[in-house]
Every structure is written in C-alpha cells, then in structure tokens.
Amino acid sequence: MTIVATIITYNRLSLLQECIAAVKKQSRPVDRIIVINNASTDGTTEWLAEQSGLTVICQENKGGTWGFNTGLKNAYEAGADWVWVMDDDTIPYEDTLEKLVKAIEMNNDPMPGFYGSKVVWKDGSEHLMNIQEIDYSDADKLQHMQLNHMKPVRYNSFVSILVSRNAVEKAGLPIKEFFIWCDDIEFTRRIIDAGYSGTLVENSLVLHKTPENYKVDIFIDKPANIWKYKYGLRNELYIRKHHKSNSSFWRNILKRLFVWPFLILFRRKNARWTFIKTVWRSTISAVSFNPTIEHI
Fold this sequence. Notes:
alpha/beta, Spore Coat Polysaccharide Biosynthesis Protein SpsA, Chain A, 2 domains, 9 strands, 43% helix
C-alpha cells in the first residue's frame, strides 16, 4: 500500500514546520510527502527549498481548494494507492496514520472511499469545525463498525483524510473554483454518491491547531472572516443543488435573499450591512455557479 501525504500551505511557516515534522514521525511512515505552496511570502518558499525528502510544488494562490486539487492530482500521478490530505495547521499524532491504515485492513470494505481522523483542538475537545455527519441509515453496519472504533459518515473535512486512488479516479478532483470552505464536504459527498464508503476512525486523532475552537456562524463570526462567506455561502448552495435537490436549492435562495437579512439585523452586533450585502451577492452568484468537475 503506497501512501502519499499532501500538505497545503500559505503563509503559516511555523505551523507547516510542525505539520511536516509530525508527518515524518509517523509510526506507519508515508512513502512520499508533497507540499503545495500557494505562493507564500513569509519565508515558507525559502525554507522549503532547503528541505530534503519533500516534493514541493509552488503555484499561484487561488485558494486552498486549488491546492487540494493539485495535491491529489500529483499524488495520484505519483502512484499513490491512498492520499493523506491535510492543511498546514493539521498536526497528526504519532499513530494517526497507523490507526487509519489499521481501520482499512479491519473494515474489509469492497468500495472504500475515504477514512477520516477524529479532529480535536488544543485542549483535547472535539474541534467544532470538523465534526463529521454520522450515517445512521444502517443500524447493523453502524453497530459492527463501532466495535472497531469506526462509524460510517456522509462527509469529511480535509483535516487528516485518507482518500483512495479508486475514489479519486471515479469521482474526480476537488472543484478548484470553490476557493475555500465546503470544498471538502462537496468532494467527499461526491465520493459517496459515486458508490464508495466514508468512514470516521475515532481512535485516529489529529490536532487542528487553529487559534480558537470555533464553527462557522454568520451571526456571530468576526468581520475579518467575511471574505470567506463570499465563497462558503455560494458553495453551500451548490451542494444543495447537486447533492440534495433543486427544491432545497431554491428554497434556500429565497431564504437568504429575504429572511437572512432580518436575522442578521437582529442577531449580529456589528458589520450588519456588510454581512447582508455578502449574503445577497453570494446567493445571486450561486444561481449561475456551475464549475466543471476535473477528472484524471
């Protein structure tokens, strides 16, 4: 089994150094490490040039999703059976990958799509941004998998996910145009829609080293994060259209155009008008947003 780790980075040198060091210390070693550098300007490029044992790909910064697209494509072309995907603020524990590999071997799944780690924050609590949605549709399957610290899931984040070569080949790559947010949800849902399975491995722990443990919430989030909602809200509507139903898509279009502005006025304490305009613009852009899925 050939496993290639791909790490996406932009201007977080100290975190990248910690991430790479943790990947190199895995009890089940990776066969190759590919770093996608999205035009960092903080000394990352110079530091990477001095390192050995890494494959470094430098490209323009067109968002994290473009980095994940490039990483998965290059890992696939390098002959990876499995691609271990992560951001630069993902810090694996020493046995994170070993537990993922053991889960693959124990599960004996004929159509394995991806295996994801349980994501925790610095204090050991579950990271609110990276909680997977458990699939409770098959009670017998769930009960059997739980005996081996696993659960079937409907999607997974890009914070320590092991993706199978076959799933990438069948489902395609992450949609570059997503730029940021919801790209991992769309990608992993597409893998499941293609007939492959998704699995959470609860004893495979990974640290998501964000400044705080938070989840996306437009009604309380900081104004500094507003640019992310430009993409995230549009991308979430795309997921509704392509992975749920047209009725869900159009119902939420109307809700965001006519209901959310009033909710923002009542719930937010600052930047109300700026967030309302962002909701309107992202919602309108979602109507014509229909990027092409890239296949290998």
